[in-house]
Specification:
3% of the residues lie in helices and 53% in strands. With 348 residues, the protein is mostly beta strands. Strands 19, 20, 21, 22 and 23 form a five-stranded antiparallel β-sheet that branches. The protein has a four-stranded antiparallel β-sheet with strand order 1-26-25-24. It has a single domain (2-346), classed as Tachylectin-2, Chain A.
Length: 348
């Protein structure tokens, strides 16, 4: 496995803000597919309000008459009702807001290395369930249509919505398919025994920790048969939570899954998992240690330090796999490997 020498491939400074008063902070966690012989990234682009000395500003969308409108809310810093919760959280009079707002933009490349990024979002808040942003897209093609899952964020938390496109110009919204709090939804690339399957991550706030679940559907809209697939293990790499990455890869050995783990000191890592080809609820093998961890400066220092996070990959004609990953919730990067390498990792 090797990092591409041109990493980071996409950095926030090359992107134009989507509206006046905003600054781009990150371009990361991209869904990946191929369309018209180009590699398409569905980038999560995070933006923050340009700072004003006396104010805390938050970007949101408002909704009226079936239309959405972007706006900026300004709170005075000396207002006793303002509370800064963390790097993204702002609370005003008991109501949570985010200091950044994410939308999904398209990036295109002929070689998988050099990308041109659209100036305007492809997916942005259009309904109240997306008031605080659209995040972390994953994409899977069925027939001539691309199915995009993404996190819809609002005052109700995060959930997963589905949209489709045939040309990456128009968008057909299907609505919410996994309700709050559920995210990290990736679709298997084909039906198995006549049903679609998806991995997802409900948010355990009870007795357990956020884990990877599997569910099935006959129409990609209505999901059932929910089953917890794997849980975080008590080790330093996934002690806090885990979640699925991009669509599983079909191999002779089974369904190869890349997933992330958040471990000690909030460091993120990437792992491999192997599921049975005819019954993906059955685990064949699970790697004991991560195959990829933050080491380079662009992976250890940034908006959220020590994060590597992948939502997608592309199999190349020469057998290589291009794994695109976000680093520090800030940049887009490329790891190059092969199916054989990943299988060797999970079957050690």
């Amino acid at each position: 496995m090797k990092r591409h020498p041109d990493n980071p491939l996409i950095t926030p400074d090359i992107l134009a803000p989507s509206a006046p008063g905003l600054k781009v902070l990150g371009a990361f966690n991209a869904g990946v597919t191929v369309y018209n012989n180009q590699i398409i990234l569905l980038l999560r682009v995070a933006e923050r309000c340009i700072e004003k000395p006396e104010f805390v500003s938050v970007p949101i969308y408002s909704f009226a008459n079936d239309k959405s409108e972007f706006k900026i809310i300004n709170f005075r810093k000396n207002d006793p009702d303002v509370f800064l919760k963390d790097t993204r959280g702002v609370v005003y009079k008991g109501i949570d807001y985010l200091s950044t707002l994410s939308t999904i933009r398209i990036a295109r490349s002929n070689d998988g290395i050099n990308f041109i990024v659209d100036n305007k979002p492809f997916i942005f808040p259009e309904v109240p369930e997306e008031k605080y942003g659209c995040e972390d897209a994953r994409v899977q093609k069925f027939s001539n249509e691309f199915f995009i899952t993404y996190s819809a964020v609002s005052q109700d938390g995060w959930a997963t919505s589905l949209a489709t496109t045939r040309d990456f110009k128009s968008l057909n919204r299907k609505g919410m398919i996994f309700y709050p709090l559920d995210k990290d939804v990736c679709l298997f690339p084909e039906k198995i025994n006549g049903r679609y399957y998806a991995l997802h991550r409900p948010h355990n706030e009870g007795f357990g920790k956020p884990s990877v679940w599997i569910s099935s559907s006959d129409n990609l809209l209505d999901w059932g048969g929910h089953k917890c697939l794997i849980r975080p293990r008590e080790n330093k790499w996934e002690s806090q939570k885990i979640g699925a990455g991009g669509p599983p890869i079909k191999t002779d050995k089974g369904w190869l899954v890349i997933y992330h783990g958040k471990g000690d000191n909030s460091v993120y890592h990437l792992f491999t998992l192997l599921l049975d080809k005819s019954d993906p609820t059955k685990i064949l093998s699970r790697a004991d240690v991560p195959f990829f961890s933050p080491e380079k400066s662009y992976e250890t220092n940034g908006f959220f330090p020590n994060v590597v996070f992948s939502n997608g990959h592309i199999e190349q004609p020469n057998g290589e796999i291009f794994i695109y990953y976000g680093a520090c919730d800030e940049t887009t990067n490329l790891l190059i490997t092969t199916v054989d390498e990943l299988l060797a990792d999970v079957m050690k």
